[in-house]
Design a protein that fits this description.
The chain is an alpha+beta fold and about 210 residues long. It has one domain (about 5-209). Helix content is about 30%, strand content about 15%. The protein has six helices and eight strands. The chain has a five-stranded antiparallel beta sheet, with no helix packed on it. Strands 6-5-7 form a three-stranded mixed beta sheet, with helices on one face. A hairpin with a 6-residue loop joins strand 2 and strand 3 (about 20-25). The longest helix is centred in the middle third of the chain and has 13 residues, at about 130-140. The protein is globular, with a radius of gyration of 16 Å.
Length: about 210
């Protein structure tokens, strides 16, 4: 597993899908981007858990886009959205031992850290799709907080105590909002709806060591 590093952060590849994983000293390992459709499709293929009818419903919520066609106007379509929390948790078990949804505090701490980081560099062993997405997103913004999609990405599932809610700072044309993700939770949504702006990323905290 190759890696690049800056200060207390380094980017490596995850063992399951060969997409970028951000390792942060004192916190743990976080998927650098929200989980993409490419990653989720590998999960579908390996587990045979969901059929075409189910996935068609997901894609009606947020259509698929091939990475060569990614632009500043449509990059949110790279990411899997519209999943119920039970479907997210099922994916997390497949993705790797001890990976889970970040807590509110973890997400916010990483958000603060990303706002002061130098540009990130890709590890050498990214999968071809992940490397192509990296190059596309770098052209859109190399700022780590935006490149990681923590800002101007999608809203993301997080855990608040024993409950699940959401945090994020999406583009206004994705979801018009004045939320500050450092202070505001996304509370007014029905958890059994398929929301085209609600995605997720996973973390493995250092407590697993």
């Amino acid at each position: 597993m190759s890696q690049s590093s800056d200060n207390a952060m380094r980017v490596v590849t995850d063992n399951k899908t060969q997409f970028p994983l951000l390792e942060i000293e004192e916190i743990g390992s976080l998927t650098l981007w929200p989980i993409t459709k490419i990653q989720f499709e590998r999960y579908i293929s390996e587990t045979n858990r969901y059929g075409d009818f189910w996935y068609d419903e997901i894609l009606r919520c947020n259509p698929r886009i091939s990475y060569p066609r990614v632009s500043k106007k449509n990059y949110e379509q790279l990411f899997i959205t519209g999943l119920h929390i039970e479907e997210v948790l099922s994916f997390s078990k497949w993705f790797g031992d001890d990976f889970r949804i970040p807590t509110v505090d973890e997400w916010r701490e990483i958000y603060r850290l990303m706002g002061s980081q130098p540009n990130l560099k890709p590890p050498s062993d990214l999968s071809y799709p992940a490397n192509e997405i990296w190059k596309k997103l770098t052209k859109i913004s190399s700022s780590p907080i935006k490149f990681s999609m923590m800002q101007e990405g999608v809203i993301e599932w997080v855990k608040d105590g024993e409950k699940y809610t959401a945090l994020g700072a999406p583009k206004s044309d994705v979801y018009p909002t004045t939320w500050n993700p450092l202070t505001d939770l996304v509370k007014k949504f029905k958890q059994d709806e398929r929301l085209n702006y609600l995605g997720f990323r996973l973390i493995r905290g250092n407590e697993h060591d």
